[in-house]
Structure formats: C-alpha cells, structure tokens
Design goal:
This protein is of the alpha+beta class. The protein has one domain. The chain has six helices and four strands. The protein has helices spanning 11-23, 29-34, 42-49, 65-71, 93-98, 103-113, and strands spanning 2-4, 56-58, 77-81, 87-91. The chain has a four-stranded mixed beta sheet, sandwiched between helices. β3 and β4 form a beta hairpin. The N and C termini lie close together (11 Å).
C-alpha cells in the first residue's frame, strides 16, 4: 500500500507545506497521522512496522506515474496495488480525516482491508 501525502517531498515543498500548515493554509490528514511538528511519530512507526501488508508513504512528486495519474487531486489517500498490477484508492481523504490524527485509527483501517 502507498500512503500519498498532499505535499511535495522536495526541500522547497516540505518548507512550503510546513509553513502553510503553521499558518493554517495547508492541511494533509495523512501528515497529521504520521508526523508531529518536526518528525515521524513514534506511535506511527510502531504501527506501520506491524501492519499485515507493506506500507510506504510518498509525496506527490515521488509517486510512480500510474499512481500519480490515479490520485490526481484526491490526495491525501491510500492506494493499493491490485493483483492485475493496477492501482486503486482504498482509503480516501474523508476516511483519513476521520482518523483525527491518530495512528491507531489508520492502522485499523488498513488492517480491515487485508
């Protein structure tokens, strides 16, 4: 599974997101689940290492082309690779918002899909 942040991973992208988040003009529910103010949450690290499927979080500018074209403007979201090699969004923005920044809730959503 691929978690897709609604931000770019370049240094300028990270800075723009961080500043925008502090000013209230940028928001990414997946970022709130996986990261604190400056680094990845230890709680998320623990959950993600014990998920029943591999999980990788990527920024918009890090996505493989097939995933990027699927996601479009739907980030943040979680994408799964299907058995036919295609991709589908399995957790959408609203579901990530409903996690309320809690890593355990995202882990539960992922586990329910497997």
């Amino acid at each position: 599974m691929i978690g897709v942040y609604d931000a770019n991973g370049s240094v300028p992208g990270e800075i723009a997101y961080w500043v925008g988040a502090r000013l209230g003009s940028r928001h990414c529910a997946l970022c709130e689940i996986t990261h604190g103010t400056f680094r990845e949450k230890a709680e998320w690290r623990s959950y993600s290492s014990n998920l029943p499927v591999p999980f990788q979080a990527l920024h918009l500018d890090e996505l493989p082309p097939a995933v990027s074209s699927l996601v479009g403007s739907e980030a943040p979201c979680v994408v799964a690779e299907r058995s036919d090699g295609g991709y589908e969004i399995v957790i959408d923005r609203d579901q990530l918002e409903s996690c309320d920044g809690q890593p355990a809730r995202l882990a539960e959503l992922i586990e329910a899909l497997t």
